[in-house]
Amino acid sequence: MTLDARRPFQQPAVSVIDILDRVLDKGLVIAGDISVSLANVELLTIRIRLLVCSIDKAEQIGLNWWRHDRNLVSPDGGPGEIQRLEQRIRSLEQQLGSARPAAAAKPTSARPSPRKR
Predict the structure, then answer these.
(1) What one-character-per-residue DSSP string does 55-110 give?
(2) pLDDT over 80 (residue 74)
């Protein structure tokens, strides 16, 4: 087997989707600290920790904070709340449906004809 010297070695093309799939499957951690000091006196420290991975991978390593975050989870746990809201919508639709024919049956007040000058 001989290599053609005129063609440079080409690596197989990797798409963004392939890279994203690999990152979500394996996980990616970025960590760093930023410190602001003046005359050897630390004024500010910012600690940055970033983890990018799939939900499955996060649960494998013991991260599941989103299951208990009150901003992301409904108070009663989910399906019961949805059923209650659906029942409330049906009730409101029935009330609107029964109110419309009564409103349509009411006579409208006659407008006075415009005056001719």
Answers:
(1) HHHHHHTT--GGGT-TTTS-TT-SHHHHHHHHHHHHHHHHHHHHHHHHHHHSPPPP
(2) no
pLDDT in tens, 20-48: 888 888 888 889 999 999 998 999 999 99
Residue 62 burial class via C-beta count within 10 angstroms: exposed 0-12, middle 13-18, buried 19 and up: exposed
Question: Strand, helix or coil at 45?
Answer: strand
Task: Give the CA distances from residue 56 to residues 24, 77, 100, 109, in Å, rounded to whole numbers and listed in that order.
Answer: 9, 21, 50, 65
Which single residue is written with the structure tokens 């000058």? 117
Closest CA to 51 of 70, 34, 65, 41: 65
The conformation of residue 114, written as its DSSP 8-state character, comes to P
Residue 7: DSSP 8-state: S
